[in-house]
Design a protein that fits this description.
- The protein is of the alpha+beta class and 111 residues long.
- The chain has a domain at 34-101.
- 23% of the residues lie in helices and 18% in strands.
- Strand 1 (55-62) and strand 2 form a beta hairpin.
- The termini are far apart.
């Protein structure tokens, strides 16, 4: 509920407008990555549409003995410089993301 949460006392906070987006619901099938894209959009501070356009893939990075460290997200070379700056992408258009970014995925041991 926005009115009892972040918009509580909106007049006192000087809020004059708010931009809201309706996000799609994910579908419960293996090929659906809606929840992942929404999580990445929140992490990089982009719109969902920007993530859908420029996000390429992610890999789990970890130790030689199978302990996960982080996810490495890769974005397109076509990503605008302003979006790269906002997200904090490195020179390879990549970003380290925490292990909790990928919804419902068991990191366990990886190869």
């Amino acid at each position: 509920n926005l009115w009892s949460g972040i918009l509580r006392n909106w007049k006192d906070k000087g809020i004059t407008s708010a931009e809201l987006s309706v996000l799609p619901r994910s579908h419960n099938h293996p090929d659906d990555n809606t929840d992942l894209l929404i999580a990445i959009a929140g992490e990089v501070h982009w719109t969902l549409e920007e993530v859908e356009q420029y996000f390429v893939d992610y890999d789990l990075v970890g130790s030689d003995d199978g302990h996960p460290y982080y996810y490495l997200a890769t974005f397109s070379d076509e990503t605008p410089d302003e979006l790269k700056r906002i997200a904090g992408l490195n020179s390879s258009n990549q970003l380290h993301m925490g292990l909790n970014i990928v919804p419902d995925e068991d990191q366990g041991e990886f190869e």
